[in-house]
Specification:
about 350 residues, alpha/beta, TIM Barrel, seven-stranded parallel β-sheet, two-stranded antiparallel sheet, 16 helices, binds coproporphyrinogen I
Length: about 350
């Protein structure tokens, strides 16, 4: 077993006791850091950063130099999978991700192949190995992927969307084509996450960012069923250690029991859910991660500290809580406020 100097994240995700509440931040590496923006402008664009393992490794380390975080997260994106499947990902300044060849017809779905990560996404796996080397056991490395549903939504729309109307049309008009797509994505994601684990990812998080736009029945059928299949096929122990799985379904607060039964070790919660209530409902079975509103970081040290305290009190004493935001940090946040946030979690949660 390789040495891990700070294992409080993994312990909390496994609901084992720790001396304080671990903390990391969704999207901790990225646009809120001036040193990230510098590197991106040197590299030209976001994909050039992702595809260069040395640069990706450097970016993953940037937030750890500023803040006392309990984890690093792979620097990459959930949309590298559709890119590897041939959709042609690119980023338009100020407009976000776009695909050159979005899915339009049944034939488009039929002609997609399941990816072989070692061949198609070797740059991600190299970045994972390099990050593990660079971390040298200081904190665990989190690997990640999108959920099949969330990736399918981007692949069908071709870009981000507020209501994903094209995707929902497929869901109700051509459910069998959507299922075919979700099955191919599921097989690709099993391969991808296991390859990340074998390359050094010590925790994996599945981002179901758009699960919350589905109806109750559709969520189970079109999102959670495939996530269950992924989790059931992941390597659960590697290098003599458990590899915990965290599942984040944005706006998934109505389905905590169903999400908790997916096989995940922890549920990442957005800010619309009470931690106390979530713990009462599913805390016996899974750890909980979250859930400060990222907008709090736009306020001032006093408000940030009191929100941190309120959230810690809401979870209460005992193991099984990982502090995080309820969604990714936004690009406009002042790093000084992030420092206040991380320090507050340390100060109010123990040693
Ligand atoms: O510099 C830039 O303009 C690129 C901005 C950027 C960054 C820094 C994008 C484009 N992706 C990322 C990195 C990223 N994305 C990480 C690693 C960084 C870290 O966490 O430290 C991770 C885990 C993601 C995950 C991701 N990408 C999600 C799931 C999490 C979430 O926020 O819900 C989603 C939905 C994406 C798609 C995506 N990629 C980039 C953007 C701007 C978006 C969102 C598009 C949209 O709003 O629909």
């Amino acid at each position: 077993m390789s040495e891990l100097k700070n294992d409080c994240l993994i312990k909390s995700l496994m609901k084992e006791p720790t001396t304080r509440t671990p903390v990391w931040i969704m999207r901790q590496a990225g646009r809120h850091l001036p040193e990230y923006r510098d590197l991106r402008s040197q590299a030209g664009d976001f994909m050039s950063l992702c595809q260069n393992p040395k640069l990706a490794c450097e970016i993953a380390m940037q937030p750890l130099r500023r803040y006392k975080l309990d984890a690093a997260i792979l620097f990459s994106d959930i949309l590298t999978i559709p890119d590897a499947m041939g959709l042609g990902l690119h980023f338009v300044e100020g407009e976000g991700p776009k695909f050159r060849k979005p899915l339009r017809t049944e034939r488009d779905v039929e002609s997609l192949s399941v990816i072989n990560s070692k061949v198609d996404l070797s740059y991600v796996l190299e970045a994972v190995s390099l990050m593990r080397k660079e971390l040298d056991g200081a904190v665990p490395l989190i690997g990640f992927s999108g959920s099949p549903w969330t990736l399918a939504a981007y692949m069908i729309e071709g870009h981000s969307s507020r209501d994903f109307s094209r995707t929902k049309t497929w869901l109700y008009k051509h459910p069998e084509i959507l299922h075919q797509l979700l099955q191919k994505l599921t097989l690709s994601l099993i391969d991808y996450l296991n390859a990340q684990i074998c390359s050094g990812a010590q925790v994996v998080q599945i981002f179901d960012t758009w699960g919350g736009i589905l109806s109750h029945e559709a969520y189970e059928k079109f999102s959670l069923a495939y996530i269950r299949e992924i989790i059931a096929n992941l390597i659960s122990r590697y290098d003599d250690r458990e590899v915990p799985v965290v599942l984040f379904t944005k706006s998934g607060g109505n389905w905590l029991e169903e999400i908790a039964s997916s096989g995940c070790n922890a549920i990442s919660l957005d800010w619309t859910v009470s931690l106390r209530e979530a713990r009462r409902r599913v805390g016996a079975n899974v750890a909980l991660q979250g859930n400060m509103d990222p907008a709090v970081l736009r306020s001032n040290p006093e408000s940030i500290e009191s929100e941190v305290q309120r959230i810690l009190d809401s979870y209460g004493s005992g193991s099984g809580h990982v502090f995080n935001l309820g969604h990714g940090i936004t690009p406009d946040i002042d790093p000084r406020n992030v420092e206040v946030f991380v320090e507050a979690v340390h100060r109010y949660s123990g040693a």
